[in-house]
Amino acid sequence: MRIVVKVGTSTLAHATGQLNIRRIERLCRVIADVKNSGVEVVMVSSGAIGMGVGKLSLSQRPSDVPGKQAASAVGQCELMYVYDKEFEQYHHVVAQMLLTSYEIENDDCRCNIENTLQRLMDYRVLPIVNENDTVATEELGIGENDTLSAIVATLAKADLLVILSDIDGLYDSDPHQNPQAKLIPLVREITPEIFALAGGAGSKLGTGGMETKLRAGLVANRAGIPMVIMNGRQPELLYDLMEGKPVGTRFEGRKDV
Ligand SMILES: Nc1ncnc2c1ncn2[C@@H]1O[C@H](COP(=O)(O)OP(=O)(O)O)[C@@H](O)[C@H]1O
Ligand SMILES: N[C@@H](CCC(=O)OP(=O)(O)O)C(=O)O
């Protein structure tokens, strides 16, 4: 069993933008334990820009591209330092992989990414992937990590993509706008009607909202990989998911499309 777990900034940080220490400790503990149970894990983690903003003591997230790139360059070190420290106590080795759409679309580069991922799996290492924000300008970049996580799931030939969000899953409307919204536990096919349910980001930290997660679901499902959106505020739910219990919203991967 090989899974890709995507973690968004809103799971890793408080609303202030500062690291949510208790959350990240719980998340790393659960992922280390899931790995110990024999599941191969690849993480796709956001948070570089947010952490850079904190480390540089900027009053707000930069809105211009060089500002975001500089914050990310600072924050990516901090992010990997935190992951390294957390996973080290459970004797797991982490690896950093920074990617852009240029490499993913280039056949030779993509082959190298796949080979590196496979060898890291053979070495029982935990790869932690992020977009290489320094070179990923708006034209060259994927722009957000929901889509990147689906691409990584296909490159890693994963059995499941798990997106940890700040919400329990896909609802029939945005619960931050409509308190009566109902969770949809299973989506067999991501149709235009399903896209019509999705709104934008729910917090200042999140970038894509549900729309980018559904686009990620299309990429994963087309490769036959199911996707689950679940709440990253309760990382222990990953245990239930691994035991086959219903968690969040599951988007079934259809092998025939
Ligand atoms: N139909 C919907 N169901 C659930 N959440 C939705 C929906 N439409 C919009 N959203 C918003 O998407 C947000 C999650 O995406 P986002 O803010 O990008 O955070 P992250 O990527 O960190 O999970 C939710 O907090 C919610 O406000
Ligand atoms: N590469 C950026 C992530 C951008 C992104 O998709 O963020 P998020 O919506 O929190 O998953 C960073 O590390 O800050």
From TrEMBL:
Gene3D superfamilies: Acetylglutamate kinase-like. One of its GO terms (molecular function) is ATP binding. Substrate binds at residues 46, 133, 145. Keywords: Amino-acid biosynthesis, ATP-binding, Cytoplasm, Kinase, Nucleotide-binding, Proline biosynthesis, Transferase. One of its GO terms (biological process) is L-proline biosynthetic process. PROSITE patterns: GLUTAMATE_5_KINASE. Pfam families: AA_kinase. SUPFAM superfamilies: Carbamate kinase-like. GO terms for cellular component: cytosol. ATP binds at residues 6, 165-166, 207-213. Its EC number is 2.7.2.11. InterPro entries: AceGlu_kinase-like_sf (IPR036393), Asp/Glu/Uridylate_kinase (IPR001048), G5K_ProB (IPR041739), Glu/AcGlu_kinase (IPR001057), Glu_5kinase (IPR011529), Glu_5kinase/COase_Synthase (IPR005715), Glutamate_5-kinase_CS (IPR019797). It catalyses: L-glutamate + ATP = L-glutamyl 5-phosphate + ADP. Its main location: cytoplasm. Residues 1-231 form the Aspartate/glutamate/uridylate kinase domain. Pathway: Amino-acid biosynthesis; L-proline biosynthesis; L-glutamate 5-semialdehyde from L-glutamate: step 1/2. It is found in: Cytoplasm. NCBIfam families: proB. Catalyzes the transfer of a phosphate group to glutamate to form L-glutamate 5-phosphate. Belongs to the glutamate 5-kinase family. This is Glutamate 5-kinase. The lineage of its organism: Bacteria, Bacillati, Bacillota, Clostridia, Eubacteriales. The gene is proB.
